[in-house]
Amino acid sequence: xxxxxxxxxxxxxxxxxxxxxxxxxxxxxxxxxxxxxxxxxxxxxxxxxxxxxxxxxxxxxxxxxxxxxxxxxxxxxxxxxxxxxxxxxxxxxxxxxxxxxxxxxxxxxxxxxxxxxxxxxxxxxxxxxxxxxxxxxxxxxxxxxxxxxxxxxxxxxxxxxxxxxxxxxxxxxxxxxxxxxxxxxxxxxxxxxxxxxxxxxxxxxxxxxxxxxxxxxxxxxxxxxxxxxxxxxxxxxxxxxxxxxxxxxxxxxxxxxxxxxxxxxxxxxxxxxxxxxxxxxxxxxxxxxxxxxxxxxxxxxxxxxxxxxxxxxxxxxxxxxxxxxxxxxxxxxxxxxxxxxxxxxxxxxxxxxxxxxxxxxxxxxxxxxxxxxxxxxxxxxxxx
Length: 384
Fold this sequence. Notes:
This protein has 13 helices and 16 strands. It has 384 residues and is α/β, with parallel strands linked by helices. β5 and β6 form a beta hairpin.
């Protein structure tokens, strides 16, 4: 890790303006990790800009945000009009903007301007280093990548992620499949050789990423390393109670109990990029929650799997059928599932709801996965 650490900071030290990029619908981990990198880069006397398509959630207002946050890449590169003045100087420049034209009027010192003295070239991008967090591939950024293809090809990239589906597209790839979060990876980078750069604000943002990704260390996959790094961050006065209060303050105890049961039984299918869980009627009774809580729980599951495409909860609620609530990121997949199960759509949460003709949860789960397999195969066929 030591050589990776040194290379990482060498990249930053050689840059002038760093662009931080996080994915669409970013997780709390990606957002808080980007805040940390922005502070570290700023400490090194470099300019830094964070690209985040969505608004920063209000619940992260207790963390220190970057000064420069953008939602698009307008103005990231200039276009140069160069005039050779060796034989004829330009004595004045005037501009005029019309409905569909921008006119530049040049007045030469003598005679007329020779068109051969002009050249037109794109300037360098104002960013000379890009750091992506939790972005499995540039293509996963969608239209922002398509519209700014040159930026992603020409600017050197550091790719930080903990997902096995990451495509290692950077000039430097810091991928740790054993880490719970990008925040955990960055914590290790700092502790290895640059621990003196950690202050209370940085520690708070790092711990926020780890807490959010591990569901406050309650996820079954939480590793001892996550706990150890969190303990080290607390030595810098990172306050876990403050983080819990801000991240979960709007959620009642009944919601938290049901959410815990959902997370404890969560399944993941890499091929379909699908996360799902099974909930029994007894779970609702014990948690004092209701099916009305499930759309928000699904949203929280989605935040934990930024690479996921399908998220579902199957549950029995006193009927002979199994009810299902599901989120599909891809509109085509969503529509096909919607049609297959004659689903209904919730207005606020964009969740589709339907029933499967099976009282047994395991049998219903099997039927749902079979249908997802069919839909996935159709999506990958040439006709889609």
